[in-house]
Automatic annotation (TrEMBL):
Gene Ontology MF term list: ATP binding; dephospho-CoA kinase activity
Designated name of the protein: Dephospho-CoA kinase
Transmembrane regions listed in the UniProt entry: none
Record's keyword annotation contains Nucleotide-binding: yes
Any GO BP: coenzyme A biosynthetic process
CDD domains the record matches: DPCK (cd02022)
InterPro entries: Depp_CoAkinase, P-loop_NTPase
PANTHER family per record: BIFUNCTIONAL COENZYME A SYNTHASE-RELATED, DEPHOSPHO-COA KINASE-RELATED
Claim: Nucleotide-binding is one of the keywords in the record: yes
Pathway where this protein functions: Cofactor biosynthesis; coenzyme A biosynthesis
Keyword terms of this UniProt record: ATP-binding, Nucleotide-binding
């Protein structure tokens, strides 16, 4: 089974690319969904947790470190189930693929990249936040330009959704 890694920065278009894979019938394991399920099982008050870590990078880092093994094992189990069903190719959509060192499981690694101005504009439009809030969220992550250097494939999502569709098809990612 081929395990493709899909990552990028906040608002760079990971979910949009993951939807393209799904539209081609390729299953996607979404780390955010796995993380939510982990917290649900532990009956954690997520809005409260969000408040605690939102404005405190140290606490956010600690939370990420504490959750990482649970999220990795949740992703691993989902991947195992898909393998048992006979899937030949699956995609792991993991925002912190490099930070959590899950990149070693995946080949190729796709980084969805946009220029920083576009990232900021799209994030503000999607979340209805101020420029400052959006910048804080972007700066809390490993830089998208650094992630780009670690990729096997960079999908540039600075253009329109149509451009993205063309780039996606050009990479022939869904052909085994
Ligand atoms: P997050 O890390 O926050 O989950 P993400 O990387 O999954 O973000 P998306 O949610 O896919 O990013 O995209 C961010 C926003 O930009 C969304 O509102 C999406 O609809 C929009 N968007 C994505 N790609 C394009 C594009 N090529 N043209 C215009 N808008 C786009």
């Amino acid at each position: 089974m081929r395990i493709v890694g899909l990552t990028g920065g906040i608002g760079s278009g990971k979910s949009t690319v993951s939807n393209l894979f799904k539209a081609h019938g390729i299953p996607v394991v979404d780390a955010d969904v796995v993380a939510r399920n982990v917290l649900k099982k532990g009956k954690v008050d997520r809005p409260r947790l969000g408040q605690i870590v939102f404005s405190d990078p140290d606490k956010r880092q600690l939370l990420n470190r504490l959750l990482a093994p649970y999220i990795s094992s949740g992703i691993f189990l989902e991947a195992l189930n898909l393998w048992m069903k006979g899937c030949k190719i699956i995609v792991l959509d993991v925002p912190l693929l490099f930070e959590a060192k899950m990149d070693k499981w995946t080949k190729p690694i796709i980084v969805v990249w946009v220029d920083s101005q576009t990232q900021l504009q799209r994030l503000m439009a999607r979340d209805g936040t101020t420029e400052e809030e959006a910048k804080n969220k972007i700066n809390a992550q490993m830089s998208l330009d650094l992630k780009r250097t670690k990729a096997d494939i960079v999908i540039d999502n600075t253009g329109s959704l149509e451009d993205l569709n063309v780039r996606f098809s050009e990479e022939n990612l869904v052909i085994e």
